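Bench notes, afternoon.
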Amino acid sequence: LSSNFYFSYSYDLTHTLQHNMRPKGFWDKCARTGIEGVPWSRCHRFAWNDFLLGPVEANIHHDWLLPVVQGFIGQANISVFGRPIYICLIARRSKEYAGTRF
């Protein structure tokens, strides 16, 4: 249980990059139109400690809740047309489909 589990204090690993990079006013617009989701809610499908966070999230501020994600994180520094680019790949594994992969 000690390998391939990740967490971040400053970045939400449970959501996609598209979700995390939405404009600041997007969530106000969603609240008016009835679209579900708030910027600090975690994606329950990828939070492996969700069963521990669930009972206390109503009583504790969301800054104190830290979801743990299982998967792979890789970083590489590559050169494209002579310019260095730093790439980070985050692959999450769903807690609902855990098991041996063949």
